[in-house]
Every structure is written in structure tokens, then in C-alpha cells.
Amino acid sequence: MQKNFLKIALRYLWRYRTYSTLNFVCLSFALTCSVLAVLYILNAFSYDKFHKNYDRLFSVEAYVTFFNGDQAPRPILSASLPPLLKQQAPEIEEVTRVAERTCSFTAGERSFVHNGYFADDNFFSVFNFPIVRGNKNKPMSGQNSILISEPMALKFFETTDCLGKTLIMTDGNRKEALRIGGVFGRIPHESTMQFDFVIPFSKFLADNSWANDPDAESNRTWILLNRNTDKSQVEGKIKNLIRHRESSLNQELFLFPLKDKALFWYSQGKRVWRGMNNVVIVGAIGFAILLIACFNFINLAVALNFKRYREAGIKKVSGSGRGPLIFQFIGETFILTLFSLVAAILLSNLLIPGLNSVFHQEIHLNLLSFKMLLFFLSVIIFTTLASGLLPSLYLASANPLQVLKGKIAAGNSFSLFRQSLIVFQFTIPVILIICLMVIKTQDRYMRDYDLGVEKDRLLVMENTENIQKHAEPVRTELLSIPGIDAVSFTNCVPARGFMPTNEVTWEGRDDSEKQFFWCINTDFDYNKTVRIRMKEGRYFNRSFSADSMCYVINDVAAKLMKYKNPVGSSITVEGRKGTVIGVFKDFHVVDLAGPIVPVIIRLHPSGRQIILVKFTPGNFTELLARIKAAGKRYDPDAEFNIQLYRDLPSYSNLNLPSGLVGLAFIIALLLACLGLFGLASFTAGSRTKEIGIRKTNGATTFSVMQMLLGNYTKWLLIAVAIALPAAFIMAQIFLGRFHFHTPMPVWAFLAGPALTFVVALFTVSWQSWRAATRNPVEALRYE
User: Fold this and answer.
1) Of 491, 459, 478, which Cα lies nearest the Cα of 609?
2) Residue ranges per domain, the chain?
3) The pTM is what?
4) Each residue of 262-311: pLDDT tens digit?
5) CB 771 within 8 A of CB 691
């Protein structure tokens, strides 16, 4: 019986091989998208799960309330928290501190820059990063020891057998010799913590005594809770710890689970999506594309079933019941789905390296993984039932008496159900193309927005302590280079953000209120490299010696201080009192996803990690070489990374979502058009006699094409009508994420549907034209 079933199924697929091939291609592409989507989702949910205490690890962070009432987490806190946390909440089993740093290391003639941590001695027992060389129970031995990763060991020594060897660490102007006390394994890509070295936290404290101040921003604090401990109870105990310690610090502590780090963010006391946005987009796109392929299959299967009524009728007369008939037709779908899945797995293997490169992912296909095997089984069952159940029920319901009397249903391929499937198939591409155009419009809006920066004339380079010590000679030398117009030392690259301060007081301020201000440390020439739009007063001027103790604030800060006439008023920033000499407006410290924040500009030499260089376009390569040469004269060991402002990455980068939506639109439209092409081919073939009679009675080619395309046009218009409000709602939600966003692009709601409409009609026009131009004599000859 099984042999006969397989023989009939393969014979049917071969007989209608054109449509079988079409269904195979559609299902293969759709299943490929589904496989890649599932791999991406599994990878996203796999972050940090290699830690055995994955569900008991939490980062202690503080909610900070900004000037507009928004609350955001502050992950970098004081190093003095651990004993207070354990005292306040005995449910805490372990506390470990981590301070991230970027340092240069030298061994012999090899010198590289690496990111790493200063961490407590219990770091490797709290987290499960394996020690491959050294004492696994006590890997950190002494304040001047260092643990390095396997890749770092191979880079410097070409072996992991390097215990006891020395690395020279350069941190700013300090150079210190550190002895290698251990080597830890390569950090998995699926880790939110990425580092190449670990140095004892005691060394960090010895060099940074300020780190224990109550309001210091020195390190992250991680805790490990006891088993079966309620997170909310611990949060309740530590919530007001900072307030009780320092009443002026208006901050609430909370616990950020390690398992949420990769996908979520905490704001306003709630968990909100971050990486989860992309997970939902990828999952929804993968499922929608699979549905399009299934609906293609249903449309073609039901259309072809008119030719199989006689087969079903004869089987019923021969004693076959509905069950075996349904099993027969479902089995044919299963075989095609199985072949498609095999092709999808092969295609996915070919595409994964390219997708990893484009979208900066590390996904891999493990065929023997239980989760993947479960997915393969689920997708085969779902696709088989979604694609084959309805057509098989349709066939199994054939009345054998009607069939044997020759009363077979007419081959009209436009039943109401299948018309609804066409509508659904084209609703998805229309929504996707509109969303893509909205995302691209917002991306272009953000790139072209006037931030007060000439994006193609401003260079951004890192400052060093040696150069900072010789700031004025370096400035003079850089200005002597032809083409350089202005140089400024600062801590603020416009629209790139930095940490705010709450150590600002002013006349009339409520002592219980501590607002956060973004304080720009810079010099007299900052307004020459970026555009500061003065509203009142003036910017700093070298002619006024008292300006070194003065401040320039923006209108948002003035409003927050409730100053009607801010110029001439006094404010105190981090203990230094000064006079406001000017008010500026429309300057973006944070990117366009956030509002214009309260900003204070002061002449201050500390913390100026950035050098801004404004230049006149010319020989760009030569200019960079001369800037680097000038920097090397004052700091020979520094590696100067100079970037054009326009090339800096945006915090609200839209490349990934726009890439995903664009790729999804192409695939969805391609699959929908393939299905429509097959259906149009069948429709034109089934109406051959009708077209021949019409042409014999004088119908023109144009009128026949108009008749054939009329039904498609009607249902495509319905798809557009359904897609427009859905796309509008999605676009509103997306643009609502940005404080500064483009107006709703009306043209996208016209161009997107029009593009989809034209492509769809072009797809069916070829088949319609072939049918309309066919010689009616050939069509009616068999009559």
C-alpha cells in the first residue's frame, strides 16, 4: 500500500511538474527564511546561558530621573556598594565589581590595544568563564597580576603557555609591568560581557581613590542571589540604599537580570524591548513568508484539483473512504515539503556566512541540535497541514455520482477563498515596502538633520594625556597645517552623548531636587568647530580673562533653573561657582532619538577625551597623515584613530531593521508573484476555449487581456486598501520612538503600493498576453 501511495504521489508531481516545481521553489525559499529566522532567534535567546547561575545573576543599577521626568538606568555606580548591599539584603550570596577599561599592552616588539576588566577576586567563581591555564580556584594572585584570554595570549606569545611572563600596560601616561597569572578561554560570542584581560580590582582602587565616593561612577556591580530568592523582595530592601546614604542623590536601586541584558532595557520602572525588537521583526517576517508560500500552494492545489475530481470519484466508487483520500493528498504535500526542507537546509548553509557578515551575527546551523530537530518536525507538520489539508478535504468531498455523470465543477480559479488568499499574499509586501520607505526616510532625515556640524568637514580623533598636557602647542601645530580651520579639545561630540552630572546648583534651587545636566568641558574654539546658536549673551572670548570662571548654558537649562534673565546669574557646577554669560539653543548633545537636554558649557581641561578638527576639503589622505604625524611628535606610542563625523556610528542605527525589512519585502513579493504567475498560467489555460470563442466573435486582444487582468486588479486593490491603515499604524509607532522625526512620508503610501501593484500586474500580464494573442482556431480545433 505504501509503495502504491508513493508511486501515485510521485506520478502526480511529475505529471504536473511545472506547478510542482513552482511550489517546490516557493516552499524552499520560504523554509529557508524560516530556518534562518529560527537560527537568529535561538542565537538571540542563547546569550549568557553558558553561566550555570544564569538565572540568579543581576546587575545592580540605579534609576536616574532626568529633567523631563524620564527615568533611565545608570549602570556605573560607586565601588563602595558591596558591603552595604550584603548588609541590607542577606539573600545576596556574592557581590563582584567590574570596571571596564581599554589599555595598550606591549610584549617585546608586539603592541596591541585591548578591552578588559578590573574585577574582584571572585569574578571567575560568580561567572563561568573557564580558566585554561593557572590556578582555577584562585586565578588572581597579587595586585600586579593579569589574566589574559587565549586569543590575546596567542597574539602576543603564539602560545597559551605564558604563565609568569610580563606584559607592559600603558594606561594614559602610566606604564606598568604586569605578570601573567592565568589564561582564560575564548569568550563566547553569545556573551554580553566581552573582554580580553582581567586585572585585580584592588589595583583599580589603589589608583582611583575617588571610586568609593557615594556618587562616584566607577564600576558595574553584579550580585548572585541565593537559590529560591524573590528578586522583588531584594529590590525592595536595596531600593533606597543610596538615598539613605546621601539624601541629595535622588536615585533608586534596582536589579537588572543578566538574562535580560541582550534583549531588553529598563526605563520608567518597566522592562522595554531593545534587541527584542529585531527578534520580533525577524520572527514575524519568517512566519509571514512561510504563510505566503503555503497560500501559494493552496491556490495552485485547489486550482489543479479540478483535474483530479475524476480520480477521487473513481476511488470512492472503488470503495475508498475519505480518510485514505485525505491521507493520499496530504502525503503528496508532505513529500514536496520534505524535499523543500532539504533544499532549504542546504541553501541556509550557503547563506549563513554572508548573513553573519552583513548583519554582524554569529549564527550556526547544528542539524543534530534538539531544538533544531524539534523545529524541523514542527515546520514540516505545520507546512504540510497548512498547505495540504484544505485541498485534500476539498478533493475528498467529491461526489462520485456527479463525477461519473461528468458533472465536474467548472475550472474557475477565482473562488472567494482563493481570492482572499491573494489579498493576504499581497497585503504583506505592501506593508513591508511602506515600512521600508518610512525607515529609510527617517534614516535619511537623521543623517541630513542640521546638528550644527558640517559633517563632511569635521574630523574626530581621540585625545591622550600627553597631548592634553601640550594642548596649546598641539593646537598651534595643527592650525599651521594648510586646510585646517579650527581645533577644539572637548568631551562632547554632537549627538553622540556622554554621561551627565547632577552636581549643579543655582539660586532658588530646592535642596531636595537634583537634576541632571550634560556638562561640556571644552575651550575657546569649540564654537568654531561646531555651530553654537547664541540666543542671549555671548560665547567665551579670549579677550575676557574672567571667562575661565564663567558658563554658557542652553535654553532648556535656563528653563529648568526658572531663570527669566539667565545672563548674569550665578550657578555652581561640581563645586565651582561662576556666572552665566550666554544662552544658546538647538544644540543636540544626545542623538535625535532623545530630546534636547539641559547643557552647560565650561572652559575646563579635564575629561577632554576628544579633539575636533574642522578642515577645508582638499587632499584628505595627506591631511590625515600630517595630523597623525603632529600627534606622534607629542605622544609617539598613541594609535590615532581619526574619523570623519559623517562616518561615526549612530546610537539609533537603522541599518539592521531597514536591511531586514528590505530583504523581507523582496522575498515576500517574489514569492507572491511566483504564486500569482502559476495561478495566472493555470487560469489562462483553463479558459482557452472561452477566449477562443470570444475572439471568434470579434473580441480584441486588449479586451481579452482586460478581462483576464480585471480580477487580479480588483483583489490587488483590496490588498492595498487593507495594507495602508496597517502600515500607517506601524509607521506611527516606529516614528514615535524618536523625539525628532520626519513628517509621515505620504509619498511612501503612494509609491509603495504602486510599485507592488506594477510588479504584480507585470507578472500576470505575460500569461494573459499569451492567452489573448493565441490563434482561436488552435483553441477550438479539438471541438
Assistant:
1) 491
2) 1-47+276-409, 54-261, 432-448+655-783, 458-647
3) 0.79
4) 888 887 677 877 888 888 888 988 898 888 888 888 877 776 666 666 66
5) yes
